Amino acid sequence: MSAIYWTHSSKSYSRQYDVIIIGAGYLGLSTAYWLKKHNPELKVAIIEKDSIGSGASGRNAGFLTKGSLLFYSHLTETWGAEKANLLYEYAQNSINLLSAEFDLVCDSIAAPTAAWTFIRTDAALEKISKIPQGILKDYTEVHLDEAPVRHATPMKKVFTGSGEFSIHPTRLLSLLEKKVKDFGVDFILGAQVLKVNAGSKPEIETSFGNFSCEQLMVCTNGESYLLPELKLDIVPQRAQMLAMKLKTPIYASGLFYDPEARVYFKFDRPGYLLVGGKRLADEANENTISTNVSPKIQEALYQYVTNELNYSGEQLNTWAGTMGFTKNELPYVGKISNFDSCYVAAGFSGHGMGWGFKTAQEMALLLLGKINEPQLVQMTK
Ligand SMILES: Cc1cc2nc3c(=O)[nH]c(=O)nc-3n(C[C@H](O)[C@H](O)[C@H](O)COP(=O)(O)OP(=O)(O)OC[C@H]3O[C@@H](n4cnc5c(N)ncnc54)[C@H](O)[C@@H]3O)c2cc1C
């Protein structure tokens, strides 16, 4: 494994920290932010194999979201009504926490917006009817003719809810980077962690030599399997995006989910549409950390725009990133079992931007000994 001399030559790092965070994505940056906010004396470093936000955090669709309404039917089926309710509140609290902590709107990082879930089948409607009232009360059924977007395929229903934001992901990361740098966190970039030797004082072997710390925080998302000694059961899943410049300056405000077609989309500004999803169009090949796009999925996204939304235009950008999926689609957070002083927040299964900020705050409190367990762990016992 290589480490480029020029990346590190002008910097003198310590080799010993109170806390080392692996991964400079949204989770790593946010955890560093909360750690230093609560304890400015703490010596913290973030080790990143690439650059800040080079993972999913800088490649996503920019939905600061609780997830589609159909996601909560999945959580209700898996966890029951009471826990699904708590998980929903958790996601909303996480979004509220971020928007209360920073002036996202003034800094052009985010705009508050509605979320729309389109439902195609009676089977999906039946599932939605089982979602607890605590969640459903926040959603309104809107007549399909009044929805801001029409599909070629007749939809059964559309629901809208509020409390979410459309964000510019890299602007958000830049804000966090600045805050964290101002707090005095060291960034060790271009250094891949090759092995973690857990123990009361974790040792971290990297392509730029070894580091040690009192506590280790692992925020490696879909690439966690590359550290097999940690035994984190997180599967990498590629997600792909298509940005289109439409022929006419169409615009509709909102985060749009068409979960049965496995598509989500939003307008960035008039005439600019971002659409993502369609992973199942080539499922066998999406279990990868490759950030290349695949023609099959890009074609499926393009067909969705032209055939389902009836928009025409040119393909502007195509890109991909790696999500980390867990078996139950909820992230692994908390202490890593059987590893002293090692903690994890990873595997957000496509919802890290919405759910991550509160998780990061709780992880900081856990490392600082101010709480015994993050809420997500308590809720899903
Ligand atoms: C195309 C796409 C669209 C998405 N859309 C949305 C959305 O709209 N809303 C939403 O909530 N979520 C979305 N997601 C998911 C969301 O982006 C993630 O849940 C979130 O970014 C996870 O943040 P993270 O910090 O855990 O992971 P990442 O941002 O992936 O950060 C992990 C970091 O760890 C580094 N790393 C990994 N292994 C090592 C190692 N061994 N040594 C050193 N560094 C290492 C990586 O380089 C990376 O920078 C999307 C994801 C993709 C790919």
What would you say this structure looks like, in words?
Helix 2 (26-38) packs parallel to helix 9 (352-367) and helix 3 crosses helix 5. The protein is an alpha/beta fold and 381 residues long. The mean pLDDT is 95. The chain contains ten helices and 17 strands. The strands form two sheets. Strands 3, 4, 5, 6, 11, 12, 13, 14 and 15 form a nine-stranded mixed beta sheet that branches. Strands 1, 2, 7, 8, 9, 10, 16 and 17 form an eight-stranded mixed beta sheet that branches. The site of flavin-adenine dinucleotide has 42 residues, from helix 2, strand 2, strand 11, strand 15 and helix 9. Flavin-adenine dinucleotide (FAD) binds next to helix 2, strand 2, strand 11, strand 15 and helix 9.
Q: Can you count the beta strands?
A: 17
Mean pLDDT: 95
Biggest β-sheet strands, sense, barrel: 9 strands, mixed
Q: Count the helices. How many?
A: 10
Q: Report the C-alpha radius of gyration, rounded.
A: 21 Å
Fraction in beta strands: 25-35%
CA-based shape:
globular
Helix content: 25-40%
Low-confidence blocks of residues = none
In N-to-C order, the SSE pattern is HEHEEHHEHHEEHEEEEEEEEHEEEHH
Structural classification: alpha/beta
Write the SSE topology.
Layout: H1 5-8, E1 16-22, H2 26-38, E2 44-48, E3 63-64, H3 69-79, H4 81-101, E4 110-119, H5 122-129, H6 133-136, E5 139-142, E6 157-167, H7 169-182, E7 186-189, E8 193-197, E9 203-206, E10 209-218, E11 235-246, E12 255-258, E13 263-269, E14 272-277, H8 295-308, E15 313-325, E16 332-335, E17 342-346, H9 352-367, H10 375-379
Parallel strand pairs: 1-2, 1-10, 2-7, 4-12, 10-17
Antiparallel strand pairs: 3-6, 4-6, 5-6, 8-9, 9-10, 11-14, 11-15, 12-13, 13-14, 16-17
Bound molecules: flavin-adenine dinucleotide.
